[in-house]
Amino acid sequence: MITSGEIRRLFSKYDKSRLTISTICSHSALQIFHGAKWLKFKTLGVTTPDRRFVYEAFPLAKPDIFIEVREFKDILSKDVQERLVEENCVIIPHGSFVEYIGAANILNRLFVPMFGNRMVLLWESDRSKQREWFREAGLKTPREFKNPSEVDCKVFVKYPGAKGGTGYFIADSAEELEEKIKRAMEKRLIKSVEEASIQEFVPGVRYYFHFFYSLMLDVGFRVTKGRLELLGMDKRIEPIDEAYRGLPNVPEEFFDYTVTGNQPLILRESFLKDCLDMGARVVLASQRLFPPGIVGPFCLETIYHPSRGFTVFEVSARIVAGTNLYPQGSPYTAYLFNEPMSTGKRIALELKKALESNRLEEILY
Ligand code: AMP
Fold it and tell me: Can you give the residue range of the structural domain that contains 238?
């Protein structure tokens, strides 16, 4: 594994006055570049040739420099990484970055400094580690079943890795579950039953909370040495949301949980107490489990049920695509900043504050 010491040594050679914010051109890259440019950082986008025009189509979010690669994974090649170092790049990880490059590759092969604590990838990308993190945080989570025969309620079945919900399904009984797992194995969606994550199906309203844990700003909700900010929230749109349209005979393919978009959302104000409490617990647990813990943006994916309250079913420990709804800020950033503030700009602001106070090492790994 590439250690924080190695990253720090390399970073000490950087020309800090020419720091460049960089990521791969996908997911929330427009927002990241837009925010970085707003704060006058140089920007660099790693792109495949076919996507470049998308980033040229939005001049205010277009990176100053492009590096073209055949496929995103090529960012790991020595040539590309050396070029990124030459340009004094700090990489901002996002959902597609982690999906295309792979958590293990980032931990073992990416020697370019990254914003945040990359140890979080170990805890985020492995479902059993994620559960341990939630347990440490004392959060309510869906019941999990190791063996299909133990199932005694409606269940929700997921596959390893963040595949955006593709192929997930529900089952009402142990028999239905066994049948559907068999089919998933035939379709090679999973190799064995052990790979399927079988959770209790949680009914309710979904809320995806966008948090930012800052070590550089202090006035507000203090959590140990930093401040926890609620930057916004969204609800994901999935084909399942439209399933009622086909009633009474809904075709099976409508039971599809692939994320296709996001809707803005605000929370009943009296629930903000629960929301901020969950965020703080996740930060505190991360500091105990993998010091210095989570740094920067993260998202808690929750389901609210009137009598059960909030159940957390997933954490994304980096900027999420739902934040793309708020390039000029959200109803919540209006109470935190006197200027428009997207999550992308917030990342750049954290880097700017750390640069000004000579504390960049604390927020990079
Ligand atoms: P995930 O990959 O964990 O983000 O899940 C994708 C989608 O599946 C979510 O946005 C929810 O709509 C749904 N989902 C995930 N877990 C559960 C659960 N335990 N109960 C009900 N729906 C779920």
Answer: 125-139+203-362
